[in-house]
Specification:
Layout: H1 2-11, H2 24-48
Helix pairs in contact: 1-2
């Protein structure tokens, strides 16, 4: 969830200066990528590994 916390903080940084603001399209792409990585990790551990770490 640290990835999503960083995305949230970057969303509220003002544009210009040292940290340029990013566009809505890049923000949506980064959020979707994080969601799919988290989903693949959750499903991958549950379906592929048969151990005590399965959810």
């Amino acid at each position: 969830w640290i990835y999503f916390a960083v995305l949230t903080h970057l969303k509220f940084l003002p544009a210009g200066g040292r940290w340029p603001g990013w566009g809505r399209r890049l923000e949506m792409g980064a959020t979707a990528a994080g969601y799919f990585v988290m989903l693949a990790t959750f499903l991958g551990v549950s379906l592929l590994l048969r151990s005590s770490h399965s959810f």
